[in-house]
Write a structure and sequence with these properties.
Elements lengths: L19 E6 L11 H9 L2 E4 L7 H6 L5 E2 L4 H8 L4 E5 L6 H13 L6 E6 L8 H15 L8 H21 L2 H22 L9 H14 L2 H4 L7 H16 L14 H14 L12 H14 L4 H20 L7
Parallel strand pairs: 1-4, 1-5, 2-3, 2-4
């Protein structure tokens, strides 16, 4: 640690200009050395560049670029003194953002007794959209290794949680609760990252979350030729036509019913099969049979033809029935 006094390097004088302090922040989600042009300009023009963390990932790249970085942790007063005479001092912030230093500068400025230098916060690198997903992957890596429960989980063992989280997401959507929606989306995302992390350990056919993301990116591009290719689509119906055509080419299926999961709830299954048949232009007579199952099948197909999700419709009706039950019990429906 360089403990050289900051004040010793200055040119004192009562009328000296107060100078400038630049707090340079970077994102650990961006490769070190990839800084903005204003950041490089500030670093190259600064009289001094300081950093409290000798292991900061940016330091090797700054030094390679010919920038001398002093490893020191000045107090607020020392930093103000270092700027006297019109000097510019750049502080390369640590991961915590130098809260002690910024708080100290705020106290000095608020005292009214110190002529403060110009203070500037300069982000040297920015997070791109989706950057926090890198944090999630890193956290999942550590949990998989160090957590006694998570380290023993398998795809089969986690399957039930995927179903539960999907239903909780649907419930949040139907309830219109934005906070719950954000939380449940996170829980669903966790399932994807967790399964992907487990898949990395497969001895025969491993894949990672990057492989998962790469696969869906390729699929989306291929199935949207009206966005990424030369085809055109002006209506949602034309978009769906593109999607189904390219999907059929990919899967080379012999029946429109292929790929429909038979384990999903009955009303959803019936509606999905009806949607596939209708989209393919097939006239399919309803099978004849006795019992409530065939009646429900007819209702589900009718709902799908009318653009109604029978599962959602039944859930809404079931909630109304729940409220009626609670009313009959004398229980406040608002406490449900």
């Amino acid at each position: 640690m360089n403990t050289t006094s900051l004040e010793a390097a200055q040119e004192p004088g009562p009328a000296a200009a107060p100078g400038r302090v630049v707090l340079l922040t970077t994102s650990h989600r961006v490769a070190p050395g990839l800084l903005s042009w204003p950041a490089w300009q500030a670093l190259r023009s600064a009289d001094r560049v300081l950093c409290a963390d000798g292991a900061h990932p940016q330091l090797p790249y700054l030094r390679e670029a010919g920038i001398r970085v002093e490893e020191t942790s000045p107090t607020a007063q020392e930093l103000v003194d270092a700027c006297v005479g019109g000097h510019t001092v750049v502080v390369v912030a640590t991961g915590e953002g130098e809260p002690a230093l910024t708080d100290g500068l705020a106290r000095l400025a608020g005292s009214g007794r110190v002529r403060m230098p110009e203070l500037e916060l300069l982000p040297a690198s920015y997070d791109l959209p989706g950057a926090r997903l890198l944090d999630l992957v890193q956290v999942m890596d550590r949990i998989r290794v160090e957590c006694p429960w998570s380290s023993r989980q398998t795809h089969k063992g986690l399957a039930k949680y995927g179903i539960e989280e999907a239903y909780e997401l649907v419930e949040a959507i139907e309830a219109g609760d934005r906070d719950e929606l954000r939380e449940e989306l996170g829980d669903v995302l966790l399932q994807v990252v967790f399964h992907s992390r487990i898949a990395e350990e497969d001895p025969e056919a491993p894949f990672s979350v990057d492989d998962v993301a790469g696969g869906i990116v390729a699929k989306l591009i291929h199935r949207h030729p009206h966005v990424f290719g030369d085809e055109t689509a002006r209506t949602p119906e034309e978009v769906k036509e593109h999607w189904l055509r390219t999907k059929a080419e990919e899967k080379r299926r012999t029946s429109v019913t292929e790929g429909v999961p038979l384990g999903q709830p009955g009303l959803a299954l019936a509606a999905k099969l009806a949607s596939r048949a209708r989209t393919a232009g097939l006239e399919v007579p309803l099978p004849h049979g006795e019992g409530i199952g065939y009646e429900l099948l007819a209702l589900a197909i009718r709902a799908e033809a009318d653009g109604v999700d029978p599962e959602a419709a039944l859930r809404a009706a079931a909630r109304a029935y729940r409220d009626a039950v609670r009313a009959a019990e004398g229980v406040d429906a608002g406490k449900a």
